[in-house]
Structures are given as structure tokens and as C-alpha cells.
Amino acid sequence: MKLVLFDCDGTLVDSVRLIHEVMARTFVAFGYKRPDVSATKSIIGLTLDIAIARLQGKPHVDEEAIAMTAHYKSIFPDVRDEADMQTPLFDGIKPLIETLAAHEELLLGAVTGKSRRGLTHILAVNDFTPYFIVSRTADDCPSKPHPAMVTECCDETGMDPHDTIVIGDAIYDMQMAKAAGATAIGVAWGYASVEDLLAAGADAIAHHPNDLLSHIL
Predict the structure, then answer these.
(1) What is the pTM of this model?
(2) What distance lies between CA 186 and its chain's CA centroid?
(3) pLDDT by residue (tens digit) across 84-106?
(4) Distance (Å) of CA 66 to CA 49, 72, 136
(5) pLDDT at 198 (0 to 100)
(6) Which pairing describes strands 132-136 and 164-168: parallel, antiparallel, or unpaired?
(7) Which one of 14, 29, 54, 131 has the fewest beta carbons within 10 angstroms of its own beta carbon?
(8) 38 Cβ partners below 8 Å, 6+ apart?
(9) Strand partners, 160
(10) Are the beta carbons of 105 and 99 closer than 8 angstroms?
């Protein structure tokens, strides 16, 4: 048996346009300039309050970051519903998940900096809900790269971290996996560079979703 844990944003779905727009509108609402999209990419994967504080160059989450987090969450659904703000699956992800789900020896899960509501929405609209039997979100655990998301998924499923594979596009995913004692596989189609993923501890890099099959099966 293996437990396969997927990150969401930048790994399953291409959500940078939406995340950046919501973040930019939040910063403007609080009197700041719109952040550069490259800056937004660098914090995707972190829990939202920590991501906002980091974009502001703050060492810790303060009251303003908490207020900005609340504002971000309040406007997110309306921005998501705008016609040009969709979050499509990356090419090849749907057949990959369907292929993996057909193997009884594999357990699939999600570990994400998204909210529980956000992850539930992504899984539902893509018909993935039956496939993902375990998940941890920003509402459940400390922010990546803390290993709790992985270790709690392992505890819930009765799996050992050494039999667990974490798949993600961010350095925080790789760091989280290694801290938990799991295998870390970086994906090249997301928001961090291959070089940064390897430097963060990736055991392997997948350049297309099909590449993941050889690392999992």
C-alpha cells in the first residue's frame, strides 16, 4: 500500500490567475500597490495569513495581515465566479487521477494551503471527491512546510510516512514531505522552478502528469 498526497494549487489546478487577482485586490483595498505576479507565485502553498504577511515583508502575522486575510476570503467567491477567473485542471491531471484511483493498493489524498471550503469546491467541480479519501487544509494544520498535514494524513489512514509520496509544485511541499519522512516529487508545470524544487529536497521531478506513474506504481 502507498499513500499519495497531492498539493492542489499549481499541482492539480492552474489557479495563479485567480489567486493573484484576489491578492491584488486585497492589497489595493488596504492601500498598497498590486503585488507582482511573480511575488504571488512565490507564496502559493503557504497558509493565507502567512502568505500575506510574507508578501508585505513582515516576519510574523499581525492584525493587519489577519484583517487582509478576512477580506481576501470575503471577496474570493465573487472573483472566482468571474468569467475569466476559472481554475482549470492541468493537462493530463484528470486521466492521471482516474488511473491512480483504479489501483486498490493506492490511497489518494490532498495536502493544501487552501481552505477546506476551497478544496471541497475544487474536488467537487472536477468529480474528484470519491477519489480523495483523506485531506488536510489550512483550516486543519499549521502552514507548510510544517509536516503536520502529511503526518496527520498518515495517522488517519494508518500509513507510514516511508510509504507516502507527496506531490507538489512548491518548495514548501518538498520541505514538508522531507520533514515528515515521506518521498517528495516535484512537478515542473507549477509555480516553482525545477532548480528550486531540487534544492528544497525533491527526490524526483515530473515534467508531465504521466511521468508520475513511474514514480508511484
Answers:
(1) 0.95
(2) 12
(3) 999 999 999 999 999 999 999 99
(4) 6, 10, 21
(5) 98
(6) unpaired
(7) 29
(8) none
(9) none
(10) no
Q: Write the DSSP assignment of 11-63 as a string of letters.
A: TTB--HHHHHHHHHHHHHHTTPPPPPHHHHHHHBTB-HHHHHHHHTT-SS--H
d(CA 1, CA 214): 16
Residues 51/26, Cβ–Cβ less than 8 Å: no
Average pLDDT, integer, range 26-43: 97
Which amino acid, residue 116? R
- Count Cα atoms within 13 angstroms, Cβ side, for 180: 31
| Segment (H or E) for 143 | none
Residue 108 has a CB neighbour count (10 Å cut-off) of 20
Average pLDDT score over residue span 110-124: 97
Q: Which domains does the chain have, with CATH numbers?
A: 2-14+88-216 (3.40.50.1000), 16-81 (1.10.150)
- Please state, in angstroms and as integers, the Cα–Cα distance from residue 151 to each residue in 38, 141, 162, 197, following that order: 30, 10, 11, 21
What's 89's DSSP letter? B
User: What's the confidence (pLDDT) of residue 196?
Assistant: 98
CB atoms < 10 A from the CB of 95, how many? Answer: 12
